[in-house]
Amino acid sequence: MKINETRRNDTRAYHSATHLLHESLRRVLGTHVTQKGSLVEPTRLRFDFSHMKPISNEEIDKIESFVNSMVSKKSDVRTRLMTPDEAVENGALALFGEKYGDEVRVLSMGDDNGKYFSTELCGGTHVKNTGDIGKFKIINQSSIAAGVRRIEALRDKQLEDYLKNKEKLSNLSSEKNDKLIKDLTKQIISLGGKPNVEETDQKSLIKNLIKQLDTLLVKSILNDKTKNKIKDEEIKGIKIRFQNVMAATKRIKKTVDNGKKDLGEGIVVVFACKDDKVGVAVGITDKLTNKFDAVKFVKLSSEIIGGQGGGGRKDFAQAGGQDQSKINEAYEKIKSLI
Q: pLDDT digits over 296-316, tens only?
């Protein structure tokens, strides 16, 4: 049987990196850190340990700095055989719950100003020199149980490949974002707006441009009488506005609020249609909430237009539905309750 030397060497390197990681965690987070589980493979390492909260970015930087400092010093790894008591006297870190025989293998590595950086009891295979580990980086942390966190890390060639792939994906994402920014800017200008492009962060800029475009689209629709039909009438001395807007429902509350301001005192009923969906919202000015309930109006309307329930407060409520052909029927139902 032929041994795969590359896989064996990578496994050794990840095992030694785990020892340096363990000690680095203790130095940065505190000596309460103890190993709760470990996975060493030729392509990665995973380390579970006791700690109550997420590790901050600053702490991760310090942990990586400790490990990479020991790697860059290229110091030899030393293996010694001792009794368990001698090992502990020499500063060896033993795993809680493990049973050891009369003789144990003590592994020391890392040059910490003339002293060993890490000393642990270990019977596994390791590198001969810390320089063999290569560049080290934590790529993920997570919580796996109460008080137990997990770190995943890469080194050397695997880390290099990971970073190249990450950069490639980042470049693709950046290109897509650039195209989206251009498209949004064009749409804003076509609606007569002036794009605010002061944000330097791509994601924040896109979010801001979408908001600008959304505001302009709603304004455009509200100014178009074919897409924004308003009918004001008075029933038993109460002013009521019926409004049918060809727009998405996310701006429906703003439309209701504007209607309430226009009426001064009264009831506003807005239906917003987009694609195959319809939303209904009812707004009631403060002085009328002792007589009428927006939630009741909306629930009845929702049932008629093929929705389910809805909710809100006495002064404002909204719901959704599917049947745009029943909008007038729903409005007439509300009118019958006034």
A: 999 999 899 988 777 899 999
